[in-house]
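Work package 3, deliverable 3.1, input record:
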Amino acid sequence: RKEVEQDPGPFNVPEGATVAFNCTYSNSASQSFFWYRQDCRKEPKLLMSVYSSGNEDGRFTAQLNRASQYISLLIRDSKLSDSATYLCVEDTGRRALTFGSGTRLQVQP
Amino acid sequence: NAGVTQTPKFQVLKTGQSMTLQCAQDMNHNSMYWYRQDPGMGLRLIYYSASEGTTDKGEVPNGYNVSRLNKREFSLRLESAAPSQTSVYFCASRPTGRSITDTQYFGPGTRLTVL
């Protein structure tokens, strides 16, 4: 079983919509999680960190549910520029962060 | 601050040729990493270096070697390139990996094609 699992999508949503992605993780001892954004053929870039129950930054909200071992990313008022792949990342305390395969979002005009 | 830099940006090799991918960071980070990313797939860890002078295998180390030349630089070498090594290679660095706030910062990638 993969350590971090994400729905690959694509999620096709109209501009202005609210969209949410979930990600499940397997290590109950993990302390922190991150959401990265990756544009086509570019490097992943940090979007948000999630340490406790959640984090909000403008239109983006990340939440952590330790009981069910998942984190979520909510994007409100979607923009065309939000089109990208969103990577869910777990810090298990081991050698490197564990990356999910990503969820692709396409925001349409 | 340039962050994490990688050279070259693009490279085409013939099967059996060797090359070294260069990575440098100017953020004084202790840990550095090499990943590969294939189309439609996630990042796979090749090698990492927790600190200067140490290197360890990741999940896909076969066919690669690394050198942590100093705190700034971490290179990846392909001794005898194979078509299966066609991929995008990302280098990353991280302050220490011991704080829950630490995260990884990526370079722009090297796009390698092996014919």
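Chain A has a mean pLDDT of 91.
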